[in-house]
Known about the structure:
CATH architecture of the largest domain: 3-Layer(aba) Sandwich
Low-confidence stretches: none
Shape: globular
Order of helices and strands: EHEHEEEHEEEHHEEEEHEHEHEHEHEHEE
Number of domains: 3
Strand content: 25-35%
Strand order of the largest sheet: 15-14-13-16-17-19-18
Number of helices: 11
CATH topology of the largest domain: Rossmann fold
Bound molecules: S-adenosyl-L-homocysteine
Structural class: alpha/beta
Amino acid sequence: MSVTSTPVRVFLLPGRDRRVGSGHPWAYSNEINMDAATKALTAGEVATLHRVDGKPLGVGTFNPHTLISFRVLAQNPTTPIDRTFFETRLKAALALRERLYDEPYYRLVHGEADGLGGLVVDRYGDIVVIQTATAGMERLLPELLAALDIVINPSAVMLRNDGSFRRLENLETYVRPAKGTVPESVEVHERGLRFPADVTAGQKTGWFLDQRDARNFVAPLAKGGRMLDVYSHIGGFAIAALKAGAERAIAVDSSAKALELAELAGKWNDVSDRLSVVKAEAFGELERLRSAGDRFRVVACDPPAFVRIAKELKTGLKGYRKLVRLAAAVVEPGGFLFIASCSHNVTVEAFASEVAAGVQRAGRDGRILRSTGAGPDHPVHPRLPESAYLKGLVLQLD
Ligand code: SAH
């Protein structure tokens, strides 16, 4: 079916319309009347969603084979989901980012909060990296790409569709350019700093746009002292700290490729002589530094998600506690600890409680200076507060 023809109709079960009716953008498979015809619809097809009595609740995409079956894209059911639709959404998303940032380096589209559930678009200047997470967005890629050309006309577009979340929608994983030639490392600008993002194979889309605000707050705390950037990736926290006047910084990561780029970033930003990189597992390296008596003015720990699925909650929480205990032990008296969690399943409260326990087990006292989260180019849909996955705390330790 072409996306411009009349969409098929999908019906909710009796009494299951309250959530979507109140503006929530999802309907789950067990809320939908999965009769044979509905079950047989093509995954990702554009459809309208209806109450039992026929009242339409919106238009979006439908996948009968996944838990979040219906994704509402527009509450007005007559909205055509075509190139013009994407153009309108992209223009609004762009206007917001242009208001927030001086330079075109940001997450341009962050899923539902930008009215485009299942889609992430990161912009690195003239180069755009796209991730689609739903069968619906995958099918709509041609319309999206055409709209992107009209709205920002990037020189190159990379499809980074290698995330494991795609399995939930039975989507294949792949990485390929959709337009132009994507260089091996793409230059990212952040508050006067330059970083080389590996958009083809690096973590996320090559750079952690989401920690921009945290980097900005943490960096100057290291002025005049030593800084330890654990789980450094390409050295975002370390290089920001060096630029803000830290004497020395050490970037620790288990990925040789990430550290190679961190060293390159050191050169680009003229701080190489004060930056060291260490390829090591974080917990072991923190233990080693503690035994060696090494202490730091600032320790930043920005690990990968310890809790990827709900089942991992208990062990993951213990992991955060242990990480804080080990990291707090190498913070000099009066120094600072930044600790982050990007686990969806860990609440702000649970995280804070593990952080407090870890600090206490390290035999330290201290105070929370700031709670951090993803920057405003990662907005949150008001009906999906739990999608605010990133949390962080900055503490001073006595
Ligand atoms: N702080 C970074 C982002 C960190 S992403 C920034 O601001 O850009 C998490 C990093 O942790 C990745 O680079 C990954 O290679 C690294 N990593 C994952 N497991 C690790 C481990 N056990 N020990 C050390 N590094 C690890």
